[in-house]
Design goal:
By secondary structure, this protein is an alpha/beta fold. It contains six helices and 13 strands.
Length: about 240
């Protein structure tokens, strides 16, 4: 079975092609000042034409989301709820829903309609999910206060969890590792998590964000890197 995994981030697209769980190909593309603004769309077109896929898995880490309790059913309010966090354009974005039964929450998020249509036009089974839900589903939480941090290229998402309950989730688009540190520490002060009583866990691009990791370790007592994303391994929390 040929499976295509796609991860959309703030300024990038990462893809992985797997055949019977063996990684065949993996590559990342990021928009910079030197690249055209349409880079991601162009690369998506190229990827989708590479070969015939039996299944596609799409993860969105785009910062257009809201977090609600599981069972919230006023789906028509999804766009309005997302708009409290980020601009949402009904004409250009598809409203999506991801439910996490493990922690009893659900995410409304939007995904660019032009990307959505291109992928669906292939007429193969497609599974869409939000990065926060996939990340949350991978967390093994105990009964204490925990901060789980998933690092991307110029992006960071994190959960604050206490007694197996999600206290807060955020997805930050920033260009500085110092900004990551500021936002995480600011969050701790606002939700009443003491530095010495909180366990920190880091995932994802920990090597790429080594400055953030080393600075965080100066402040916190309990810190563990769960895994670092390396080529052909741990892609999108696999």
């Amino acid at each position: 079975m040929n499976v295509l995994n796609l991860l959309f981030t703030k300024d990038g697209l990462i893809y992985q092609i797997a055949k019977n769980k063996s990684i065949q190909e993996e590559k990342s593309y990021f928009v910079t000042e030197e690249t055209p603004e349409t880079l991601i769309e162009e690369k998506l077109d190229e990827i989708l034409l590479k070969q015939r896929f039996d299944e596609i898995h799409v993860i969105s880490a785009l910062n257009h989301f809201t977090l609600m309790p599981e069972g919230f059913s006023e789906h028509e309010a999804g766009f309005e709820l997302i708009a409290f966090n980020a601009p949402a354009d009904r004409e250009k974005e598809e409203l999506m829903l991801s439910v996490n039964k493990k922690f009893g929450v659900q995410f409304y998020y939007t995904f660019p309609k032009n990307f959505y249509r291109k992928i669906k036009e292939l007429a193969v089974p497609v599974h869409f999910n939000f990065s926060g839900e996939k990340f949350l589903n991978s967390i093994n939480n105990k009964n204490n206060k925990e901060i789980h941090i998933n690092l991307y290229h110029n992006q960071c998402e994190f959960f604050a969890i206490d007694n197996k309950k999600v206290i807060l989730y955020n997805n930050l688009d920033v260009n500085s590792e110092v900004d990551f540190l500021y936002f995480v520490m600011f969050t701790l002060s606002k939700i009443g998590f003491g530095i010495n009583e909180t366990n920190f866990y880091a995932y994802g691009e920990t090597t790429e964000n080594e400055t953030f990791i080393s600075e965080l370790q100066k402040f916190v007592k309990n810190m563990r890197i769960v895994f670092d994303n390396v080529p052909n391994k741990n892609f999108i929390l696999n």
